Amino acid sequence: xxxxxxxxxxxxxxxxxxxxxxxxxxxxxxxxxxxxxxxxxxxxxxxxxxxxxxxxxxxxxxxxxxxxxxxxxxxxxxxxxxxxxxxxxxxxxxxxxxxxxxxxxxxxxxxxxxxxxxxxxxxxxxxxxxxxxxxxxxxxxxxxxxxxxxxxxxxxxxxxxxxxxxxxxxxxxxxxxxxxxxxxxxxxxxxxxxxxxxxxxxxxxxxxxxxxxxxxxxxxxxxxxxxxxxxxxxxxxxxxxxxxxxxxxxxxxxxxxxxxxxxxxxxxxxxxxxxxxxxxxxxxxxxxxxxxxxxxxxxxxxxxxxxxxxxxxxxxxxxx
Length: 320
Ligand code: GLV
Description:
Blueprint (H helix, E strand, L loop, with lengths): L2 E5 L5 H10 E5 L9 H7 L5 E4 L7 H4 L7 E4 L9 H6 L3 E3 L6 H16 L2 H9 L20 E5 L3 H11 L4 E5 L5 H7 L1 E3 L2 H7 L2 E4 L13 H6 L5 E4 L8 H9 L5 E4 L19 E3 L8 H19 L7 E2 L1
Parallel strand pairs: 1-2, 1-3, 3-4, 4-5, 6-7, 6-9, 7-8, 9-10, 10-11, 11-12
Antiparallel strand pairs: 5-13
Helix pairs in contact: 1-12, 5-7
Glyoxylic acid (GLV) binds next to loops.
């Protein structure tokens, strides 16, 4: 008898086929709309495996409905959408997809940094709106990237990959992390600093920590106040790490220069969100890992994790 699993969003056909070889698969067939909570609550009741995305909240009350559940396989590296403790108490294994998305997410982080520094979306709109009447000395001028100081908050895999890219731009790279990494410092010419020093000295601050109770609002008014007037903050990790109200105020008052945001406290972000009204904010809809190759790798890895648990093996990427 095949084991029952539920997939919370339409996945590429080869992944569904792979899972269907050994599992009885049910799937939320829509691509543009997440599975409603009441559907998930019903579907989870008799499955042994759940393949989910960061858009689903897997909490204790949902897990209480899942008597047969053995594994929650998240197709993301971040797993703040899952109550890992509650899962552990119920003997449910949680897995994620680290590694395969590192370089792609670093590419996007650096693109966002460059787009924000050089005002790329604004300049493109300027042209399309018919405002390009002439070339003039200070028109659409931004900040230099080469030779600037980059501060990385959270030196995990993605943080290191961003630092590698910064080397090509002759940037000085500072980092702050829970633990110091002497090996990476030597290899990538990094300088460890306290958070406040990083904020004071950086031209670019990249937020790349996991979202945990400790990093919730890690960057708030006090921290933003330390940043240079010409500084740019880039967040491609999770919205809640930077307090949005404080960020709005800092950007509006121009106490910092600009922000590039791939993530928001609430996603999808509301179109009337104050941050979307500011010209010095570049926004993206959480596309850090969104390359075709990487999304296929993530889906395959999430499938591998799920199948391993169902087959009684140790999954490659267990968390918690
Ligand atoms: C995306 O944000 C992820 O955590 O993989």
